[in-house]
Design goal:
Layout: H1 2-8, H2 22-35, H3 39-42, H4 49-54, H5 99-113, E1 115-120, E2 126-133, E3 136-141, E4 144-149, H6 152-165, E5 176-181, E6 184-189, E7 192-196, H7 199-205, H8 209-223, H9 231-239, E8 241-255, E9 276-278, E10 287-292, E11 298-305, E12 313-318, H10 319-325, E13 333-342, E14 347-350, E15 368-371
Amino acid sequence: MSTNINQLSGGVIPQTLTTLPIAQWQKFLQLEKINYLSPKQLNPSPLHSFQELTTDNKSGLCANLPEVLIAQPSLKVVAGLLPLTFNQSKVKPQTLCPPQFLQSLQGVLSQINSPIVATSTANGSLLLIFHRQHQTYQIWLNNQLFTSLPDETTATNIHKNLQQLLQVSKLDPRQLRPGLVGNSPAIMLGDRPLLIIEPEIANQLNINNELLAIDWANNLRLAFNQQPLTLSQGQMAMYGVKPSPTKITGFASWYGDGFHGKLTANGEIYNQYELTVAHRSLPFNTYLKVKNLLNGKTVIVRVNDRGPYISPRSLDLSMAAARVLGSETTGVIPYEALVLQPSHPQITLNQPTSSPQPGLTTKNPTPVLDYN
């Protein structure tokens, strides 16, 4: 008997119920049709699940469930309402910033950021001078700081020169670079000098005048959205040199205060703040691109002296060159140097022989340019 009942119920009847009378088994089997549902019946479609479980068994499990009907609200028509009207507001508009507040704010800003001089050039550039502190005058070009100077007179002179020289409607900022006019560093537009940097300006700023020329040229490039030159790129453009196949290696030292102001082997006065080097045999005025093998820093130096004579050193750098290479504290470093060769002629500066013309230098003299 238990085997037949298990077959009728699909084999899911508990063993403890197989001894029930037949009448109870029939009732149990009717319940099993609902309690033991297939996975498909347990997950019917959401729209018909409740209906499928109740319509076929209204006299069974769901016979006593009351039918719940939710009364729907009825809509009533309301008559006699007045039409809506809109009146224009006559409230006086209020300003976010009263004039008194604006005047006060402008007064404060004028003490901080008001330019001493503000001009625009032919190509649309904005050139400003700001007095920041007691002895700091800044020249800005197109929202880019060009330089900071210690006195208003120098700042005004450089501002005037820049204003005059930037009156070019089609200025190509890609041609802005440092260069040499005679022995003086300058800012060039291609082969045209824009501004010659005098040693007095570099001394006031406590910086090498060649490095100052590179810095100012890069600031002009940035003002016109051009990438700045690296130090080596700026020096190669300034000196008019390019790499040669010749390389030398060895150890480099540097010399400074004890020789500063004395004669060098080529007859110059040694200046520890210039980018020069001593070598035993290389021709004078040879340019070397020296790389510090300890940190990868590079600088281009010019041979103007002889030495060193302490083995195994083969180069003696100026103090300024040692600072650029990061060897001022170390003293002696291993180096690799590339000998450079001329790539284009330099510009020489002669004295004027005619009536004065607008000057190009920071001191506003009147040079005449010859191209060799």
